[in-house]
TrEMBL record:
Positions of the UniProt region annotated as VHIID: 126-191
Species of provenance: Dioscorea cayennensis subsp. rotundata
Region (Leucine repeat II (LRII)): 201-233
PROSITE patterns: GRAS
Family: Belongs to the GRAS family.
Protein name in UniProt: Scarecrow-like protein 3
LXXLL motif, short sequence motif: residues: 250-254
Upper classification of the organism: Eukaryota, Viridiplantae, Streptophyta, Embryophyta, Tracheophyta
Domain of life: Eukaryota
Name of the coding gene: LOC120272994
Length: 485
């Protein structure tokens, strides 16, 4: 094994650990499974799984099927959807990598008739996530308070909800509007969804609540996907003060239909020079990881894997803070929203770069991001919880598969960090509305009442990030057309 300076100074306890063999092990086709792997402690097994996953991702990207298959076989013996944090993560990333391999043969892939999570199960999983973790609740609380402040004194308010799946956010807003000193406005909510039953349930629930609170109210359902939305169908009227709320929707508009199939090619036996270079960089990184004996899994992923893997990215990749991947759909959509002259637009998005040009970029970013989410559930919810398992499989697992296994228009989970959204919205003619201290205070108090120290908030330049430990997972920002400055 090649030794670097850190390896030379490693303690004898590290040298005697089986971890010293991980980065030098040759994973060759048909190699026998090593029995001592089953005897690894949880932390050691987690490190070994990271090693296998990164190697597998490199082999998949390079088109080395035999090597990828060998990695997948070894990972499958250690991963488990009901095990510890790293075992659960590995089970979902392994499935994503396997699906990507299969998609290189469209006929084989389609003939297997691989199932995806249905709408009912998906909605149930998201509701469980809403109940188990405060992230979405906090985002809704912040958005509602920002709407209240932007609409102060307005008599006719029109809220456009870009993704209507649950009435709970707007029930809370109705109750808050009822307490306004000047009285509630005439409220109109336009709900957008491609599932009629969701619109029907939401509309009925909100009309019932508005009647109980004696608030003049209208619910306008629009049966459509946000990417196909016609702004004329929103029926914005003269004199209405408009608010637009986007909860995890804008990133879906970054997908493009013109690059379907990119990244899928017939596997060959030897990696390309570029892939070999990337693999060598990851091997050096793995040497450094295996020399660590302290720190949490999250710290390893954050401080070491990410720091070195990013050095292998091309300067013009989508992960670069200076480059924006072109997105005609996004540009057209934001132009349409701007034409509605909203007083405020609230944007909540995942705080991670899952829109990289290569699968390697996305794999490392996704591993880092979802490790924090899995760790959050591990710290707050029992492992045997059926609700937790549904969230991990039907929500996180589906997102991971989409990020890793899909390309082109099929890849919808194209999350980008806040700095990219700032650029996109600025180019589209929007300016920042600094979120006031009040929603931050309310959200902070809510998190404190949740009884877990791991949930935190960060405020910077008027934006709010919702964190697990020190890792920002979601961002909330407010915008308005520049004509309102």
């Amino acid at each position: 094994m090649v030794q670097d300076e850190a390896a030379a100074s490693a303690s004898s306890s590290v040298i005697s650990s089986p971890l010293q063999f991980f980065s030098s092990m040759s994973i060759s086709p048909g190699s026998p499974y090593t029995p001592w792997v089953q005897e690894l402690k949880s932390d050691e097994r987690g490190l070994y799984l990271i090693h296998l996953l990164l190697n597998c991702a490199n082999h998949v990207a390079a088109g080395s099927l035999d090597q990828a298959n060998s990695c997948l076989e070894q990972i499958s013996m250690l991963a488990s959807p009901t095990g510890d944090t790293m075992q659960r993560i590995a089970s979902h990333f392994t499935e994503a990598l396997a699906r990507r391999v299969l998609r290189s043969w469209p006929g084989l892939y389609r003939s297997l008739n691989l199932t995806t999570t249905g709408i009912a199960d998906s909605l149930a999983a998201r509701r469980h996530f809403f109940d188990l973790c405060p992230f979405i609740k906090v985002a809704c609380l912040i958005c509602n308070q920002a709407i209240m402040e932007a609409m102060e004194g307005e008599k006719v308010v029109h809220i456009i909800d870009l993704h209507t799946i649950d009435p709970i956010q707007w029930v809370a807003l109705l109750q808050a509007l009822r307490q306004r000193p000047e009285g509630p406005p005439h409220l109109r909510i336009t709900g957008i969804s491609d599932h009629k039953e969701l619109l029907d349930v939401t509309g009925a629930r909100l009309c019932e609540e508005a009647e109980k609170l004696d608030i003049p109210f209208q619910f306008h359902p629009v049966l459509a996907k946000v990417e196909n939305l016609d702004v004329e169908s929103l029926r914005v009227k003269t004199g209405e003060a408009v608010a637009v709320c986007s909860l995890f929707q804008l990133h879906c508009l970054l997908a493009s239909d013109d690059d379907i199939g990119n990244g899928f090619r017939k596997f060959h036996s030897s990696p390309s020079p570029a892939a070999t270079h990337s693999n060598n960089k990851n091997t050096v990184q793995l040497h450094k990881i295996m020399q660590l004996t302290q720190g949490t899994l999250g710290e390893l992923l954050e401080k070491d894997i990410m720091a070195n893997a990013k050095n292998a990215y091309s300067p013009d990749s989508a992960s670069s803070p200076f480059a924006l991947a072109p997105s005609p759909k996004m540009e057209r959509f934001l132009a349409s929203v701007w034409s509605l002259t909203p007083k405020v637009m609230l944007v909540t998005e995942q705080e991670s770069n899952h829109n990289g040009a290569t699968v390697n970029e996305r794999f490392v970013e996704a591993l880092n991001f979802y490790a924090a989410l899995f760790d959050c559930l591990e710290s707050t919810v029992p492992r045997i919880s059926p609700e937790r398992m549904k969230v991990e499989k039907m929500m996180f697992g589906e997102e991971i598969k989409n990020i890793i296994a899909c390309e082109g228009g099929e890849r919808k989970e194209r999350h980008e960090k806040l700095d990219k959204w700032v650029q996109r919205l600025d180019i589209a003619g929007f300016c920042r509305v600094p979120l006031s201290y009040l929603p931050l205070l309310q959200a902070d108090r809510f998190l404190q009442s949740y009884g877990c120290d791991g949930y935190k908030l960060k405020e910077e330049n008027g934006y709010i990030q919702i964190c697990w430990q020190d890792r920002a997972l979601f961002s909330v920002s407010a915008w308005r057309c520049r004509r309102f400055e």
